[in-house]
Design goal:
By secondary structure, the protein is an alpha/beta fold. The chain has 14 helices and 12 strands.
Length: about 350
Amino acid sequence: MRILLIRLREIGDVVFTTPAIRAMRQHFPHAHLSYMVESLGAPVVAHNPHLDEVIVLERTRGIRGWLKDFELIRRLRSAHYDLVVDFHSGPRSSLIAWLSGAPERVGYDVAGRGWMYTKRVPRPRQIRARHAVENQWDLLNAIGISTLDPTYSPTEMLVDRDAATAVNERLSAIGVRKDDELIVIHVSAGNPFRRWPPDSFALLITMLLRRRPRRRVIVVAGPSDRDAAARVMGESIDRIEMADRNRVASAEFTLDELRALMDRAALYIGGDSGPMHIASTTTVPIVGLYGPTLPVRSQPWRAPQWPSEAAELEGLPCRPCDQRVCEPGDFRCLTRLTPEQVIQAAERALVRAATITGSRSH
């Protein structure tokens, strides 16, 4: 049996399908399991042990894009897939699923393209207080696979050995020791609705460093947000005493390297974006900054003993939102979230992590 799974676009969405990948392998142990993904999210599944093949789909516009898709369709049809599960169900992915020639195609019943699937699963348009992993697992329910608890089916991303070596060398070069309490802070986000103000990050870093002398902070951001990282670094340096300025650094990491970095980190802090979901594939304590989104929809999907704290403003009538227009106009769901609230969540996560470490040592 040959099975094709499709999930295009965002990194976090790809991470949220990894429990389903494992479930598919368990349900179809002898199947040839392929996964189609765009290049942005490809590192998440590149080393997944449950997959036989990863097909990377480039985002190419115009005639060149159509020609590449035509070649892809020819490749898929010649592979003779028996089943396609389209976790994305967007215009491009649904067309690929339909043209693949697979006799069984599972996707969401989206207006205008639901007919391309042989099994259609309802997907309500309203924002629901339900985790994205469960939403995507609805497609597996349609073929008889029950949704599993995150304790037994967490998100996963395997470490690339070369990336781990590169991360260790880079940390050593900037003076980070293995016994340092390394805190990774991600300061960028894909859209303005999920960006915590740079001065709030800078104050948070100052407060974190003041509390323990063995703490080191690494500020990370995506390639398109170098300015955000530079601003946070600049404001942090201005607030920190001269002797402590070597305890904070900024660096760029690939997704593979970011995943490896989590194995060295004592804590991760960041908004509801791809890097937080990469962190959630590990056991690192996490503090998520939730603005327009709800923790119940995108919090780490992993065993509950691993510390995860949500920093959020509750009670706002405009939250959650569709992230197209900020009704109040001031992005208050994040701008009113204080560094004090975040550091309290951080200390709670670290205390819980220390409790787990202590219980293991006895």
